[in-house]
UniProtKB/TrEMBL annotation, chains A, B, C, D:
Keywords: DNA-binding. It comes from the Bacteria. Pfam families: TetR_N (PF00440). The lineage of its organism: Bacteria, Bacillati, Cyanobacteriota, Cyanophyceae, Acaryochloridales. Residues 31-50 bind DNA. This is Helix-turn-helix domain-containing protein. InterPro entries: DNA-bd_HTH_TetR-type_CS, Homeodomain-like_sf, HTH-type_TetR-like_transc_reg, HTH_TetR. It comes from Pseudocalidococcus azoricus BACA0444. GO terms for molecular function: DNA-binding transcription factor activity; transcription cis-regulatory region binding. Residues 8-68 form the HTH tetR-type domain.
DNA sequence: GATGAATGAGGATTCATTCAT
DNA sequence: AATGAATGAATCCTCATTCAT
């Protein structure tokens, strides 16, 4: 194998370690020296692997897409009912709240950093979103993509409110309520469909 | 005699004009010189009214609380059914999407700027949230605060996804779906309640 | 009397009140706003009486010359021996150490502010010095101006060391020693002179 | 491998070159840009070696302590009489007047910059003083520390007067006179002691 | 590849001074 | 005369980036 593999692998390792830093400090407030120090390398080394701070950050976001934090998928697929699958998914979310918040924050940082227009052209965030959407379709076995999207919006909004207001917003309560609302809606749909059929 | 200036009023005027700037550029990327230039004053004047960039920003957020963008309340209260009231509220949201996005962005900026701990202690954002919550309770005539909170999370999440993905996420579609989901849920609740009663 | 008298008198009053401020903070560290605030006037008023900060400071130094802090002279003249007169003069110095230090500090500030060349051309500090020298000649009834100058140097040096080292340098002890040294010297001179005569 | 630079040595070199600047301009009037320019480096480099302007200045003063400008000591010790030793010491002073003035000025600047309380706690200036005092005790072979202190006060005062009044105060004359006064005093002391003994 | 010293444009902030009232 | 709001040049300091070693 050529050296390129090592190079690329090391680059990803560095990116991984940067993740928390950007989430905690924000793009602008985080300096290259801070990053270098936290990673235990010199700024020179940083510039050996990334052409600029912006490049480093963009690669970080791009990398985020590929990180399959939805590796929990397998567990869910065995569950028989939609209700159970949603419950498991929400349970995962609750257990990984910190990480999910970070992703949300970094996405927003990216948005601010790039400027609205660029972001929407840049495929990165769109990809993250689509990726997650597809994962949910597969895992929840719910075909209605509008509903998937609704869930995603709600979840991201909930994470945001949790940042601002902390425990004043109950994760457990809100997730339980949403499950109730959604299942009620789906049941009703089914009933109506059956009624239509009948 | 000094130049006659209503100090406090002028300060608010300056704050108002800053709002867009912070939402567009973000706290860190926006310089005091840029602000001064955009407002048509000197940096010295800025420091005459605000003791620091941070102070300016904090006042901006504090001011945001008091701005009653939910002045649309009056119109809604006359509407007879919950479905109509929710539709009207969502209509307002759609028409004022830009402004609402800005508020969301600035809140997040504030979160990053202040650090998680401070933010949750700081009354400001909590107030915004409570204020909006109460307004929705009054206007929608919906007593279940958990549901109100759910709606708020969803709406903020939707705004966020709209930022990242633009028109790829349909505001109209999502809002309509949510209305459907919620009314279905409420109807079902009522039915069940009546069933309980009967 | 024309208004000029009032104007001039007020100007002097302002100068007087500035004295401590400059001694405590130093020229550069003291701002016009601070001065204005301390004097209970506006910066505008300050500029009505003084054309600039530099001008204010120069006038302050010039004024210092004319302030006869050596008004103690009268008391001394009645004392019969040189030793007693010197003792009284040093006693005055000890009681007014704070004020004397301030004068010294302000002189040095002036020196730094003006630049070495200007200072020596500027009559101000030279005048203070000559003024004091003459006062001492008259009061101590000691004709030898070289000795007067030596005393002045010593006293200023002592004040300086007291600033830096505080009570680690004893004012009382040093002044007493100098009195002893000087009177010994003068006595010896006299003896020798008499010996020459005889 | 990094550029090979002896950090500490270079830092001292920079400090050395700063000395004159601070003495000439004073702490407040001297800007970091001016310093950088004078030293032929960038402001960034300055901040690489010193954490702030204040730190730079404090290190300068601390460094001043260790600079043994009293390296002339060896020459003096061979001289047989106190009179000759004092003459040689004053001769050295006269030849190094410029440097000595600078030290005095910088000490005063330090005093103003730090505020009276801090200065007296700060060991730096006290050390300079003690260091010089001990050197004089050793070199002049004069045990009476009060007299050493008196000489130091006089010398510093003389330097100060020379700054303000330039050649109007004669260095040579004043130093000669002080020598005369002191030797007369010491001779008299001896005579009296012998008288006591006899 | 790796280092960290060096750079200098650019940031927040201060402050002497002006001037409309 | 008196005020204090307004100005903007100049200050200290930071930080992305370069480059000699």
């Amino acid at each position: 194998m050529p050296k390129i593999v090592d190079h690329d692998q090391y680059r990803r390792e560095l990116l991984n370690q940067c993740f928390d830093l950007f989430a905690e400090q924000g793009y602008a407030a985080l300096t290259m020296r801070q990053i270098a120090q936290a990673l235990g390398v010199s700024t020179g080394t940083l510039y050996h692997y990334f052409s600029s701070k912006e490049d480093l950050f963009e690669q970080l976001v791009a990398d985020m897409v590929e990180q399959d934090i939805y590796s929990f998928a397998a567990e869910l697929e065995k569950l028989p009912t939609f209700g159970e699958r949603l419950e498991a998914a929400f349970g995962f979310l609750e257990r990984n709240e910190a990480r999910c918040r970070q992703q949300t924050l970094i996405s927003i940082e990216f948005y601010q950093q790039q400027g609205a227009d660029k972001v929407q052209q840049n495929a990165a965030l769109k990809q993250v979103s689509d990726h997650v959407e597809q994962a949910l379709v597969d895992v929840l076995k719910l075909e209605d993509r509008r509903l998937i999207r609704l869930l995603m919006c709600f979840v991201d909004g909930l994470l945001m409110h949790r940042m601002f207001e902390g425990e004043a917003v109950s994760m457990t309560e809100q997730l339980a309520l949403m499950r109730h609302v959604i299942t009620t809606y789906l049941d009703h749909q089914q009933v109506r469909s059956q009624g239509d059929v009948g």
